[in-house]
Amino acid sequence: MICYKIIENHNGRLTIESKVGEGPKMEIELPFEGANLEGKENRKNGLI
User: Fold this and answer.
1) Domain span at 11
2) Residue 36, CA distances (Å) to 1, 8, 24 in order
3) Can you tell me the distance from the alpha carbon of 36 to that of 43, in angstroms, rounded to the nearest whole number?
4) What SUPFAM superfamilies does UniProt report for this protein, alphabetically (predicted)?
5) Strand bridging mode 23-29 / 13-19
6) Whole-angstrom Cα distance, residue 37 to residue 22?
7) How far apart are CA 23 and CA 1, in angstroms?
8) Which of 5, 10, 32, 48 falls between 20 and 30 A from 40, CA-CA?
9) Is the pLDDT of residue 39 over 50?
């Protein structure tokens, strides 16, 4: 939950999948500086 909240506060996503015999898979997605996950500019550029 701590990791999830940190990632969420940075406008990112945490995805966790688990398959029997393979173990868990975790993906962390964080936006580039100046963009959100949809690829739009962020608020400091006045476009949102």
Assistant:
1) 2-45
2) 22, 12, 26
3) 10
4) ATPase domain of HSP90 chaperone/DNA topoisomerase II/histidine kinase
5) antiparallel
6) 28
7) 19
8) 5
9) yes
